[in-house]
Amino acid sequence: MGFFSSNKSEANAVPWIDLTSEEQLDAALANNDQVTFIFKHSTRCSISAMAKTRFEREWSTPDFSFQLLYLDLLNHRDLSSKIAQQTGIQHESPQLIVVKNGKVVYANSHSAISAQESIQKASH
Question: Which helix (H) or strand (E) holds 47?
């Protein structure tokens, strides 16, 4: 195994779902059967790329029902504004917002984003 190799198996790959429409967002935020993780990512920002890579390295599949939404901010900036409006969390990039039973249980941005902390907050 080389220096840059990863021993993370494909079975543990991060199950991103592209967030591309207001209808999809509305359904996700109204879904009380699943925890919704929303990762806002700017594909042109090196800080955002670092936060996403770190998140993916930390990710472990939680033992509760969830969906992990990926928002490409360059293509869907309007959805970011709608997320801010519906959650009350001011837009930042990169940013992770976790919603459980209609309430934000975790929100962080930049280097403060933590997959493990977000999973822990969502599990309570």
Answer: helix 46-58
